[in-house]
Records
---
Amino acid sequence: MESIKISSFMNQHPVTFTVNMHIAEAVELFLNAKQIGGPVIDENNYVIGFLSEQDCLIKMLEATYLNENHYVVGDIMHANPLTVRPEGSVLDLAQQMTHAKPKIYPIIDESNKLIGIINRTDVLKAIDDQLKAMYKQGHSRLV
């Protein structure tokens, strides 16, 4: 199977978060973008954490019971998330995704700055496209 690069299937315009962003604001971004998680970046676009819908759901429930909503992203983000490079292989990432929990990976460039994200759906699409192309190629040889 031909190597499929992560850069060919990444989302170059993901929703991102900052450490001082209120959870309610992060939730609004999630809802508008239909994205289930995203990188937390600093002022220089370095990935410093990761925030998921699940993280927000837990804190929003707490805020409902306690009648207070003072949490910010930095309070609940996961520090030092797993990241990938754009030249990496989608097939290698797919293999990793079968064993690791992250459903979304921030993609960083050679200077470790965020350039996009890739999620399980993107990986499935890449593999599906590859399999379809191989099937067409094999089918055309038989004709």
---
Amino acid sequence: MPYHWITEPNAPTEVMHLKPHESLPVRGMAAFVLATFTLILIPAFALLGTPLLWILLPFLLLSVWGIYFALQRNHKQLQITEVLTLTQDTAQLVRTNPNCDTQTWDCNRYWAQVTKYDSEGPVPHYITLKGKGREVEIGAFLSEEERIALYDDLVRAFKS
């Protein structure tokens, strides 16, 4: 699961860390770009020694760079973390975005509400936390099944 609870036995604080799932780690991305570069160069070997190679080479290198750039941007966009901290009295959600700015929401735990929008949100099974006059999203980057499980966990955590 891309989220997990960190709780100490007999501790009054519960902490949940949420992070998007990365299906392609950095080493896998490097291997993919290298394999793509190698496979693109195979047809270029037939053109060795001809002026046509120098015409096609910039386009081949541009395509490899485009793949690398797209994968690098995707990796950067996945650097989102959300930390939900539940104490006896308060609930606090801190979201760190890819550009390192943070957004914070907190309220009295007693008044906090967990809401799931099955089809009205930007994603199916959209989950929000309400409190102190604000409604904030949580776990929008998770898959549908993960959001359903997250909703059940949040409801259980806020009731206890």
